[in-house]
Amino acid sequence: VQTVRLLLESGAAQGFTAREVGKTALTWACMNGHSGVARLLLEAGADKDSMDWQRKTALIWASGNGHVDVVSLLLDSGAAMDLIDQEGSTALHRAATNGHTQVVRLLLEAGAAKDIADQDNKTALILAAKQGRVEIVRLLLEAGADKGLKDREDRTAYNWAWICGRYEVSHLLLDPESEQDLSERPSRRSSFYCVAPFQLSR
To answer: Residue 78 burial by CB count (10 A; 0-12/13-18/19+): exposed, middle or buried?
Structure first.
């Protein structure tokens, strides 16, 4: 933190962008959870909504990596919550998929849109249900997320929870007043489709 402060005081450009990846100093600080550095950069006027080559903002990175303090700092500074990256994902999508419950709570309390769909037409609720994120599914439902929305494969959050064997989640999503589709049973083959895309890309 002290080094960054000295650099800023000596006139270093807080908005300098690494050409190869398009990340600013603020983006690097936020994606790695350095809240003290992020605070200094924001106070120096860093663009809190700058996007890198993947169209990810500092908030999307911090949310996906579960950096609660950084997410709180960015939200307090007025960072845009519902910007989407190149895969159509928001900060809420990333946090919900990766199981960062406290980050999801912060985003919802700040008013993040609950039902934005990514490039596969999946909402945060569908992604959380696929991964068996029980507490996150509960938070999203309490916040009013629409459990009836379907993705490009014509499946709801309940359908994915059932297919992936996330039975506690499927119980939360079960609507006793409507007939649920139980035709697709969990199988070894279907388990591949239940892995988070972020896990597959690592």
So the answer is: exposed
Residue 71 pLDDT:
98
Report the pLDDT averaged over residues 153-174: 94
In a 3-state reduction of DSSP, which class is residue 175? coil
CA-wise closest residue to 28 among 19, 37, 106: 37
Paired residues of 18 in beta bridges: 23
- The H or E element that residue 17 is part of is strand 17-18
The sign one gets for the Cα dihedral 177, 158, 85, 67 is positive
Do residues 33 and 64 touch, judged by C-beta distance below 8 A? no
For the segment 185-197, what is each residue's pLDDT rounded down to a tens digit?
A: 554 445 556 765 5
Domains of the chain: which residue ranges?
81-200
H-helix or E-strand containing 23?
strand 23-24
CATH number of 81-200: 1.25.40.20
